[in-house]
Amino acid sequence: MARLGLGLASLGRPGYLNIGHGSELGEDKSVEALRRRAHEVLDFAYEAGIRDFDTARSYGRGEEFLGQWLRSRRPEGVTVSSKWGYVYTADWEVAKQPPEVKHHDVDTFRRQLSETRENLGDWLDLYQIHSATPESGVLENDAVLSAMVEADVPLGVSVSGTSQAETIDRAVALNIFSAVQATWNLHERAAGDALARSGLKVIVKEGLANGRLAARDAQALAVALAQPWADVVLSGAASIDVLRSNLRALETPPEDEPGLTEESSAYWKLRSNLAWN
């Protein structure tokens, strides 16, 4: 059975597209309030046995918060991953558009790797391309790929959209990545076969479909954890209460609900229309 991990997409910035994110954070969304909240959730997660933590350069101050927690707690046995390729542009506003902008060029990689290393130091175990797609061309960019290989850090790729399977296959063919992070949940299962044949470490993101499956969180996460190709399934909790509920997945029988499956194109169209809150 896969391990449950914690992603910081909802903890590092005041706005995110998860349904109910704003109410989960509460009234005070200041930098200091989110820093305290992030550290409290990280403490709870570690005490509960979570050892996998995932963040990104575009998660507001997610890397900063995680790095401060790591240096102050010195936790043992953790695995830390981050991602490059998006620039956070919301300036700590909840619904500023666009909240983040994709940049998959070599200059952005070098700059963001330097920033990530400043935040996470020697704790960085995996550095991933953030949301690689055929349209971005990043997996065809020799300058970027060469710079990544030369960076001397284990490499991964995260994927999104209707082309997840195609992108995973392309990433595998390059033979430079040790891990892939993909969306898989009871609504969107299209990447499953590609993940199964990839031979890479698989990190499942958006297991609750950005909050659409929150009402059945333990069951939804239990099914994801039970997939034979899954190694880590990320919780996106922004509060101790929600993380406590997510942790019930570790004790919940994985009873699948195939009738919840959606067409991939419909799923991603709906996701793109979710409001940042």
Automatic annotation (TrEMBL):
Pfam families: Aldo_ket_red. Residues 35-218 form the NADP-dependent oxidoreductase domain. It comes from the Bacteria. InterPro entries: AKR2_Oxidoreductase, NAD(P)_OxRdtase_dom_sf, NADP_OxRdtase_dom. SUPFAM superfamilies: NAD(P)-linked oxidoreductase. Signal peptide: none annotated. This is Aldo/keto reductase. It comes from Solirubrobacter deserti. The lineage of its organism: Bacteria, Bacillati, Actinomycetota, Thermoleophilia, Solirubrobacterales.
